[in-house]
Amino acid sequence: IEVIMPKVITVGEALVEIMRPSAGQPLDQNGEFHGPFASGAPAIFAVAAARLELSTAFIGAVGDDAFGRLMEKRFAAERVDSSGLQYPAGFATGAAFVAYDDSGGREFVFHIRHAACGQLAANLIPIGLFEGADWLHLSGSTIFLNENSRAACQRAMDLIVTQGGKISLDPNLRPELMPVDEAGKSLAPFLAAADLLLPTESEVQALTGESEISRAVQSLNAKQDAILALKRGPTGCSIWRDGRQLDVPGFVVEEIDPTGAGTVSQR
Known about the structure:
267 residues; UDP-N-acetylmuramoyl-L-alanine:D-glutamate ligase; nine-stranded mixed beta sheet; 8 helices; globular
């Protein structure tokens, strides 16, 4: 039997998303929900990469429950290596409740820190998965969870660097998990090490305090030769490297879910 080692590894939260069926239904009102759907920014990224026929592995934690089994089935269906899944005793699979307002803004209620996905730690990172890996993808939403999650991300980063691989980072600022000023400090060592950065315009502005985008990009404390792919919504994206900028226009698509769409745009 041929064993295919993953080329892309992502570390972080696997959770279910339970959402309002249409905009204008805030979470503080009674109403219907749709779901559960397999979710979590790193998990969504892993599935998106696998759909591009990249051998992909996910490292994270779920509960020994129905939602955890939903995640297992999704990874299996998408051919994501989930051998790095952990099952911390006594913790349920994480969940996120999501609502959209009429302008497209999102409201979240997270059950993550005290769920299974919040129990990931450095000693749970399986070293063997990194043999031959080319890329590690990290998300700020994982880094913001707690000290153990940050340590797990740092451990994974050390392993991929030792392998001679590269790091991609989505800042994925989530004020519900950590205020922006604290988030910048937590992200700093990961920003400095990342070979590919995938922020939005509002994220580079928030992280640098600069309102003008080109100045914000230049002020970001990133690795000198890093590629920065700035997500600009319907406008498209702009790619910066070595002081040069390339603008790529957007194109019209039928949006299914803005949360998932934002994450898979990193592919």
